[in-house]
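tool=predict chain=A
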Amino acid sequence: MAKNTRMMIATKQTNPLPGQHLASSPRQSAAIPALRFAFIGTAMQLVLLGCGSSGDSASAPAAPPPANVKIAQALSRETTEWDEYTGRVEAVNAVDIRARVGGYLDKVNFTAGAKIKKGDLLFQIDPKPLKAQLNYALAELERAKTKRELAKNDLSRAENLFKAKAISAEEYDMRNKGLREAAAAVESAEANVYTAKLNLEYTEIRAPINGRVGREMITAGNLVKTDDTLLTNIVSTDPVYVYVDADEQSVLRYRRHAQQHGKGSTDLKGTPVELAVADESGFPHRGQLDYIAPREDAATGTLSLRGVFANPDELLSPGFFARLRVQASASYPALLLPDRAIATDQAQRFVWVINQDNQAEYRQVTPGSRIGDMRVIRNGLQAGDWVVVEGLQKLKPGAKVNPERTSLSTPGAQ
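tool=predict ok
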């Protein structure tokens, strides 16, 4: 029993409780922590290697596919530059119709909006009071003529008597002055007759120009005041004017172009212009400049230009909004691209050109005038370059693309 008890005690001492350490040699005590740290470090490396390898395989991104884009070559063609302005159609002639004599309106002799000719009767004012004035003036004229004849006879007799020394010089002079007074009275009466006839003629209000008449502003039976009451208005319809305001630089360019291309002077009269109204996309109406203001408006820095256009079908009405463009250059060969193909990088304009390896190249360009929906490219592009016209938003230099070739159509507006 004593032997068994010693063995049990020995066994218990070889399995220390937590926190207890078995007695050992100093060398063994120093090796145990080193083994523990080596084991822990190896385990951590295995764990990190396992995590790292699995994470790399899961997060590695797949290469993006090439962007799908449409490419086209710039359109090469003869081009003429035009500068576009906005303005209003105006009548060449426009008249407000007013009465030259007063009276009650007797008749309206036209249909509102009708086309009329010069001399057509428009209104009739009651002529009876003015006819009476004319008759009175005629009677006064007749009386003045009678007095003149009497004064003439008196002077003839006075001459004979004066020669016979039967009357004094004062009497003869009186008869002479009487004839002259009677003659002046006749002239005054004739002027009154002319005035009365003129007033009677003015009771018929006639069209002073060809054109279209507006509506009547007053109806029959109303009192018309001399030079005051507006009766209607008339505007001419063929040809028509279009007024626009051009800036100083543009006018100088037009004048230099006129000087260098045939005219030899800076006169802009005859410069080709084209016109479009609100529902037209092109510029179907052809005309020419016939007036330029002789002085610049200092407040706006512009000069007024006027184009004249034939209007036989009366499509253009005075007051219409109009777009007018002025020829700004002679014809020259140019490269054109759609506006949508030109991007902006701060103050620079550029396009994406696709090379033979289907890679996008950044190309800075200098755009010029707009021709329809196309834009002239002055510098930076060569004929035959393939330019991205659709899908350029996500491109960057050197990016691979999947190009689809297309062709550009001729712009509708020249």
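Confidence is low (pLDDT under 50) at residues 1-35, 46-58. The chain has four domains: 69-78+333-405, 82-91+237-327, 101-125+209-235, 127-202.
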